[in-house]
Amino acid sequence: MAEKKRIKSNLITYGIVIGMYLIMEILMRTGNLSSHLKGLLVPMTYYAIIAVALNLCVGILGELSIGHCGFMCIGAFASAIFSKLTQNALPTPIRFFLAFVVGIAVAALFGFLIGIPVLRLKGDYLAIVTLAFGEIIKNVINAIYFGVDSKGAHISLNNVMDLGMEPDGQVIINGAMGVTGTPRDANFTIAIVVLLLALFVVLNLMNSRDGRAIMAVRDNSIAAESAGINVTRYKMMAFTISAAIAGAAGVLFSHNITSLTATSQYFGYNASIMILVYVVLGGIGNIRGSVIAAAILYLLPEMLRGLNTYRMLIYSIVLIVMMLFNWAPAAVDWRNRVKHKFIKRNA
Amino acid sequence: MKKMKSFISMMAAAAMLAGTLAGCGNSGADTATTAGESTATEAADGAASGATFKFGSIGPLTGGAAAYGNAVANSIELAVAEINANGGINGYQVECRGEDDELNAEKSVNAYNTLKDWGMQFLIGSTTSACSLAVSENTHEDNMFQLTPSASAADCVAYENVFRVCFSDPNQGLASAQYIGAHKLATKVGVIYDSSDVYSSGIYQTFAQEAPNQGFEVVSAEAFTADSKTDFSVQLQKAKDAGAELLFLPIYYTEASLILTQANTMGYAPTFFGVDGMDGILTVENFDTSLAEGLMLLTPFAADATDDLTVNYVKNYQDKYGETPNQFGADAYDAVYVIKQCLEEAGATPDMSVSDLCESLKSTIVTITASGLTSDTMTWDASGEPNKEPKAVVIKDGAYVSAE
Q1: How does pLDDT run across B258-277, given as a tens digit for each residue?
Q2: Last residue of a domain, one of B257, B273, B299
Q3: With an 8 Å Cβ cutoff, are A265 and B197 in contact?
Q4: 8 Å CB contact of B100 and A12
Q5: Residue A30, C-beta contacts closer than 8 angstroms, at least 6 positions apart
Q6: What predicted TM-score, i.e. pTM, was given to this entire model?
Q7: What does the pLDDT look like over A108-159, one tens digit per residue?
Q8: Which residues of A touch B104 (CB under 8 A)?
Q9: B32: nearest CA in chain A?
Q10: Contact (CB<8Å) B226/A39
Q11: Residue in A224, A192, A195 with CA at minimum distance from that of residue A211
Q12: Together in a domain, B76 and B113
């Protein structure tokens, strides 16, 4: 029974994503979608992906991470460098696929490395370290100069002159100027496929033996340990997967916009907190909620452009209203009353 | 029970999403009334059904860099109002609209798409480099003419449909180094720059590359980042210890005012040399402008110049917006008139498609010689870079005077 319910719930989640995709695709094909909305589709999807990743970390694993945009940043830069290097050597589909592999692998590696010391700790340490990690990544990338010429790769932390490049060389990361000219390979279809894959991974993980172990660690790590669960291992597993999915979002990010700079508006802690807002308002531990909340909350400020500067005010009011609607006891009571009426009428 | 709950919450969420999408559809239709149907492919239709030229601009209208975006948007509005009052371009009135990008390249592309739905025919923007770079990818795809007033990074004009009004970062670095070398201002130079800023590090790079050719030595090059821009005592101390006679500051005026104040406190008085971001230093609140005495800067625009054009512009701007305009505004004001001149030269009309207008402007802009606030003679070549003389000014008695 529970199994059936779970499958149904998962199918609804996939159904919502595929349904939205089909609606958007039909609107696009028939020319009924404004170019504004068309441009929003890919960003909306990668924010949904990173919200799913963060929900795995915050909701399922129960560890607060406020540096998830750091993993996104790593995925974005790793894949952008790869794409720049192989731009003329590989055909687009293969290159873009490999870019995903590279971005995800590097982000997962960093997630793993960060996890080793930190996940052994208890309390809020992960939040503190991920916060610092996000900021460090941003600042390190801002300081790196990296170029490739006929003699091989050059790297410097001072300035572009120190690279000592041959005239035929290509500067790939130019300090604060970041990576420019990454091919624009991302499109809505690919983004949706990645989102579905991320959902598939997370939803299946949640209902697997490993997922139950992870949730047991979240609920009571002492009890889990006494039942023979290796707490650190399962924490590492969830955190690394979460970082890897965030890296995938980063790959879409860097292949959707041609000027990639490691600045705070994309990868700073404010951006990470924004993702956390998506997760919290969508419901902690509720993967479907994260996708919906990310989509709504990303679209909202853009849709309110017509209101000029008032849109920030309206946006924050909507955030408060959503929070109250979801969590305030009075709102929950009201929702239950409405629901009962609804059920009675149907009965 | 739980299923029911989740079903209802899902429905509620779906309804909200539908609401936002429907809201978008409506607002799209409202703003794009002249564009016939608010579809992407019909961006060109804006021209067909309305008899106006449509100028769009993008810049940070909110947030920390709002001063730049607003200066650009306001100056475009001002220039368009003047043009309309004087009979428009080729007899057609001009409409303009500015969109906010919050200094975010992602949002800048969104803003561009919004303007496209509105029926924009020319883009004056984006105001800042990274944003302009991202948007140029889209304008290139749509073949829309883009003239950025102030995006100075070298790559911004890589596409042949993009031109700019301001100097590029490499040009400014080069010109500054050449000026210092040619006038033998110093042999030991210190630099303080913002390594997290594209503009600042871009200027610094070429400046440092050119220095050996100009017979002076960069003895200290100290960086700060956007996260640590309030205390410069370490950077100043290093420059002082290295014996720098001249301090080159390729940064914006807000940080520069702090550097000047802190240098004064520690009794360090080299010659300060800035670039166009320094314009505006005399308007910083609570800044003792006497500290800026002797500050030299290379800038295309000084708000207290005395030629008629500048005086008029500054006066009108102050009357309308209550502030003194900066060089971003001046560049944007010139951009409008440059497009006007090109359109008149080409005899273009608003019913041409965006792509045709772009082609015609691309071929015209390289032939004209424009004159405006930021230079008396500006010409362009196909690379997109302007050819104009940088002006060196020095602050004397609280006002800019020519350094010559």
Answers
A1: 999 999 999 998 999 998 88
A2: B299
A3: no
A4: no
A5: none
A6: 0.83
A7: 999 999 989 888 777 778 888 889 999 999 989 988 889 888 888 888 887 7
A8: 265-266
A9: A34
A10: no
A11: A224
A12: yes
